[in-house]
């Protein structure tokens, strides 16, 4: 029986001695016997009539050869290169030379070395808590064995620790800060080993109450800021809407500007009313307003640029058409007495 690691090389021995009675042609044949008896044997390689035939088994094409380039010399051993786990099985060597026949069976087991081993920590790394160090190889033929060791500080494992070599778990009970350090795990089987390491840092318990209060305060603060932003946006929208409405109402309520003619007419009408109400009793202190001082809404002239108009005489019929009312003015003597 042969045990080899994946990727290695194996030589399956097959030596023979011919007798003087063996006079027929020499045939050397290697076959793979399947685990299922219902299946036929698979020829791997053959030597016959001084020729080698090695194209029978595609799974091993390019990975097998006779150890001796001249098998008829008595050595028909077989070399298999770059072994794979699928090469595991029972191999048989047959040597035929009439009338003699010799054969032998060899069991080959291809094992996979441990590989891709990973270390991890399970449980809180706090003082007084139980911590579990885990070690698992993702590749490797059974039976795998795991062993933990401490590589920093004190080399020995803590006294309050329990190791399970089959599962790869190291239990550290009631952890303390003295347990902190680097731990290494070695996974092994019959053909190889693999290793991983991890850092353990045991700290005082976390103040969960303070964390919860901080989280609540942070949440409330975030909600307040969000509400403030929403309020500012709504206020801004209302102000814009109000400005638009006020501007629209002002444009609708503004009356059209008055023309000069309408202003003059209103001024003349008011003077007519004043003339109609004049009497000798209220003539005192009345002064005639010159035409140049008639108000106008369209423009105003500077005081120095107002043209001086000479008073003109208007005939009586024209005054009547203009709406003037005749007024009797009593005559006065030189001394001011009424005549």
From TrEMBL:
Compartment(s): Basolateral cell membrane; Cell junction, Adherens junction; Cell junction, Tight junction
Annotated InterPro entries: EJ_Adhesion_Regulator, Ig-like_dom, Ig-like_dom_sf, Ig-like_fold, Ig_sub, Ig_sub2, Ig_V-set
UniProt feature, compositional bias: Basic and acidic residues: 244-255
Region of interest (Disordered), residue spans: 244-315
Superkingdom assignment: Eukaryota
GO terms, molecular function: cell adhesion molecule binding
GO biological process entries: homotypic cell-cell adhesion
Membrane topology label: Single-pass type I membrane protein
Listed transmembrane segments: 211-234
Protein name: CXADR Ig-like cell adhesion molecule
CC per GO annotation: adherens junction; basolateral plasma membrane; bicellular tight junction; intercalated disc
Pfam families tied to this protein: Ig_2, V-set
UniProt KW Oxidoreductase keyword: no
SMART domains in the cross-refs: IG, IGc2
All copies of domain Ig-like, residue ranges: 1-109, 114-203
Species: Strigops habroptila (Kakapo)
């Amino acid at each position: 029986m042969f045990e080899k690691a994946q990727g290695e090389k194996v030589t399956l021995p097959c030596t023979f001695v011919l007798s003087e009675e063996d006079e027929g042609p020499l045939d050397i044949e290697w076959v793979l016997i399947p685990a299922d008896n219902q299946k036929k044997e698979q020829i791997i390689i053959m030597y016959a009539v001084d020729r080698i035939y090695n194209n029978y088994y595609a799974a091993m094409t390019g990975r097998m050869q006779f150890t001796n380039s001249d098998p008829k010399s008595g050595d028909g051993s077989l070399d298999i290169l770059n072994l794979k786990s699928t090469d595991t099985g029972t191999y048989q060597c047959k040597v035929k030379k009439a009338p003699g026949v010799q054969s032998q069976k060899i069991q080959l087991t291809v094992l996979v070395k441990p590989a891709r081993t990973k270390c991890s920590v399970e449980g809180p790394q706090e003082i007084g808590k139980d911590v579990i160090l885990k070690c698992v190889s993702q590749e490797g033929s059974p039976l795998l064995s795991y062993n933990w060791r401490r590589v920093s500080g004190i080399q020995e494992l803590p006294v309050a620790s329990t190791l399970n070599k089959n599962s790869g778990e190291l239990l550290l009970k009631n952890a303390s800060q003295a347990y902190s350090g680097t731990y290494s795990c070695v996974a092994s089987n019959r053909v190889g080993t693999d290793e991983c390491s991890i850092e353990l840092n045991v700290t005082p318990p976390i103040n969960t109450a303070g964390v919860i209060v901080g989280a609540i305060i942070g949440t409330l603060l975030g909600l307040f800021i969000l509400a403030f932003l929403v309020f500012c946006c709504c206020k801004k929208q209302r102000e814009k809407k109000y400005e638009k409405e006020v501007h629209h109402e002002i444009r609708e309520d503004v009356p059209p500007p008055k023309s000069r003619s309408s202003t003059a007419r209103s001024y003349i009408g008011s003077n007519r009313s004043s003339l109609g109400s004049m009497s000798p009793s209220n003539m005192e202190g009345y002064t005639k307003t010159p035409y140049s001082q008639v108000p106008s809404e369209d423009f105003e002239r500077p005081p120095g640029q107002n043209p001086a108009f000479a008073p003109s005489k208007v005939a009586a019929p024209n005054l009547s058409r203009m709406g003037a009312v005749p007024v009797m003015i009593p005559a006065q003597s030189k001394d001011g007495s009424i005549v």
